[in-house]
Structure to design on (427 residues):
């Protein structure tokens, strides 16, 4: 089935329609939803002829479509302007797509996504930890072939992989993925050989943070800090629109910030790491200790008991809150994130955890962050993989500042009233 994907080529060539000007315009259209050529020139300070040339290349490569004229814009006499938008499957039958894989403990998620980050098709597969990595990848790629056959439309232009593991300096090989039982697996090489497409690999929680920055609760934020509670506790950062990849191996371990030196032993060899208190298994143990055996999800049961005013549940919540605040304090002090995003089990608890955590972090912060519920839900992994591929193959990193930023708001602020320059505090 992989041959259905193999050979699809990314649109454009370096220096062609996807040169720096075209990438900048593509970002504007992505963020605004739709824009005219005049809007693009005003937003970027590019000349009208430069915009016209770049847009022609984007339309030719099938990345942007013309929606038609709008006679209601009130821009004076003459021909009404033409709106431009991203080429998505609801607009054109052969819209470009990206293949997305999320490799986590026990599951592999595969998806096809459009250039706006929408999910066209998705499948979740099981796999055994310590299984042969190449076999797991091949099974995932076969599933992508089935998704494309089912979709019956679109052309795959790139692939993104989000993996729960540490990458090498090139970002192409998984050095260690303890939860997968993998060591030194050349993931990018394997996917590229199978698909004939460029492949970008990222740490899964870092990719999840990017998804929130692009289309979630982090839109408009300069710095997004993300915490995902599952089998462990992962952290991700997006700074100035770029996923932060710390050090040679991209290892940024929020879960291994020590918050209680006398606390439980951690798998890393130390004691009292945040992960020992805030991973899903740890939160489930906390809930069971407070409530006893419950039916269904213990984390949801803890949330509901806190809402109901149960004293034991509130004490358990406060215990978790103290450890989370201790873990995030240095992140807030050093990076001053606009928004702290809670994902996984922590997202389940957001209704009873978000507001008190925000208050705790505000006590010593010059610029207190918003604490928000992750928007992506169980799509976080594949959406993160998709946005990793989209940034690498189509959009590129955002400019450090928009050329017209001193005189006009960033595109999207006026055209989408739900999008704000800073996420609103939620409770």
């Amino acid at each position: 089935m992989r041959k259905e994907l193999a050979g699809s080529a990314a649109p454009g060539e370096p220096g062609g329609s996807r040169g720096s000007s075209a990438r900048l315009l593509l970002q504007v259209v992505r963020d605004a939803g739709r824009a005219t050529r005049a809007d693009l020139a005003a937003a970027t300070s590019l000349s009208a002829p430069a915009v016209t040339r770049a847009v022609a290349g984007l339309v030719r490569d099938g990345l942007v479509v013309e929606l038609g004229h709008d006679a209601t814009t009130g821009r004076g006499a003459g021909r009404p302007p033409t709106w431009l938008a991203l080429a998505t499957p609801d607009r054109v039958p052969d819209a470009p797509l990206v293949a997305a894989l999320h490799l986590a403990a026990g599951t592999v998620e595969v998806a096809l996504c459009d250039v706006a980050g929408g999910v066209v098709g998705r499948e979740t597969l099981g796999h055994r930890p310590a299984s042969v990595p190449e076999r797991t990848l091949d099974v995932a790629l076969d599933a992508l072939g089935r998704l494309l056959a089912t979709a019956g439309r679109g052309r795959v232009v790139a692939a993104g992989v989000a993996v729960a593991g540490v990458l090498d300096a090139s970002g192409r090989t998984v050095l260690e993925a303890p939860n997968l039982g993998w060591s030194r697996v050349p993931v990018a090489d394997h996917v590229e050989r199978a698909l004939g497409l460029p492949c970008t690999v990222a740490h899964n929680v870092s990719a999840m943070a990017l998804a929130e920055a692009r289309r979630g609760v982090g839109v408009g934020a300069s710095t997004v800090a993300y915490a995902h509670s599952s089998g462990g506790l992962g952290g991700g950062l997006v700074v100035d629109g770029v996923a932060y990849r710390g050090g040679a191996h991209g290892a940024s371990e929020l879960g291994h910030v020590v918050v209680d030196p006398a606390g439980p032993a951690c798998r890393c060899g130390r004691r009292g790491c945040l992960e020992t208190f805030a991973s899903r298994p740890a939160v489930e143990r906390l809930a069971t200790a407070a409530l006893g055996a419950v039916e269904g999800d213990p984390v949801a049961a803890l949330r509901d008991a806190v809402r109901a005013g149960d004293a034991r549940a509130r004490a358990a919540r406060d215990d978790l809150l103290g450890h989370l605040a201790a873990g995030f304090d240095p992140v807030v002090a050093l990076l001053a994130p606009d928004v702290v995003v809670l994902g996984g089990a922590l997202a389940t608890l957001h209704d009873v955890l978000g507001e008190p955590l925000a208050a705790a972090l505000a006590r010593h912060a010059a610029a207190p962050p918003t604490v928000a519920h992750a928007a992506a839900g169980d799509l976080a992994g594949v959406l993160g993989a998709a946005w990793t591929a989209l940034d690498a193959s189509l959009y590129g990193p955002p400019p450090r500042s928009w050329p017209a930023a001193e005189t006009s708001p960033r595109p999207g602020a006026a055209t989408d009233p739900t999008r704000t320059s800073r996420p609103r505090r939620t409770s």
